[in-house]
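Predict structure. Chain length: 449.
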Amino acid sequence: MTLLDVSVTNVALPSIADATGAGPSELQWVVSGYTLAFGLVPVLAGRLGDDHGRRLMFQVGIGSFVVTSALSGLAPDARILITARVLQGIAGGLINPQVSGLVQQMFAGPERGRAFGVLGTNVGVATALGPLVGGALIALGGPELGWRLVFFVNVPVGLLVMAMAHRLLPRTDTAMRHRLDVIGALTLGAATFCVLFGAVELDALGPVTLVLLVPAVVLLLTFLRRERRLTRERKDPLVDLRLFRQPSYTAGVVVALLYFPAQSGLPLVMALYFQRGLGYSALQSALGVTAFAIGSAVAAPTAGRFITRIGRPLIVAAAVTFAVGAIALALVAHTAPTSHATLLLAGPLFVMGIGNGGIITPNQALTLMEVDPVVGSTAGGVLQTAQRIGLAVGQAVIGATFFGYLHGSGPDAYAGALGAAVVAALLFVAATIAVGVVDLRRQRVRSPA
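Prediction complete.
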């Protein structure tokens, strides 16, 4: 539900503009406000879950998500909608770290890998199916009601989830409560805001937003220095930096930071290619990328079953598979006739989906496999933050590359821009592969046998 709302709104933007009179900048913030807020709170939310109970914080997050979804659907104008979307993003960021923490708490060994496989299936399918669900709801409700249904659908689902959580989720032992590092939370939040705001506004404001990287680096170094001191003095840091002494955890966070730009950026420009380049409707465009969702749904649970036996090589192989599919996508887009584009592009998109499902699930499992469940939500929150930053950077960089190479309005022009976007995505994938190979070499040095 929370991940689907990252992409489901994209196809509703024309209807929102017609109903509320929102301009281009306001429409940008309907999407970006959610993404920005979503990325600010996972680390703090994870710490609250570790200290006060994951089931409790999960239910608080779900309840908040239900309320803010209803506010979004009832919004009479663009300003109220943007405000509701920011609050909805905060609620979504509160939920997700509790999920990974609960998986670590409830499962161990190979069972944990299979549980992360189920979680990975949800991540891949929800992200990929967002446009399809949005297109179907708009077609069902029409241009006036359809975009509101995109938000209202979360209300009954959220209420059902709250009831199930109360009945099925275990209580967390919170006897070891800690003082919340408020200064650390504010410093990390400010650093994350600078990165995310610069990324989401890159298309609108241009390279001037890169100036925000300077305060981001200063704030991040300040945060790390503070957390290192609190860790050394055992004074309840927001993030216990001893987590990063585990090479598997460090490698997994870096892989998430590098891979998510490609995973989020290419589906975004594919929607533009289908709708503006080929003249498809929102629903037709969503159906065009269904093969990606199917590939992710097939690969994620399968990868979850084998991750404890294969380990990091599985992620490297999946990244190579994603790259092969992306290259094939660009080549087919240049040669496919418009009338058969959806069918011909389904193969490359399916291969990309296989690679996607083989990366997200194993990486999450390997990253958190050796983490003490006591700090499971905090560790998951750091991973979630890396993913959200990667998502925002990918949409900004790959989107900017796409528009930068777009010259003209016909299918050929959009195919050329898509090829440039694929090249940008491949740079992120190549970096992901490099990190995986380095981690493999480290493991072989430690265990020559």
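Summary: The chain has 18 helices and no strands.
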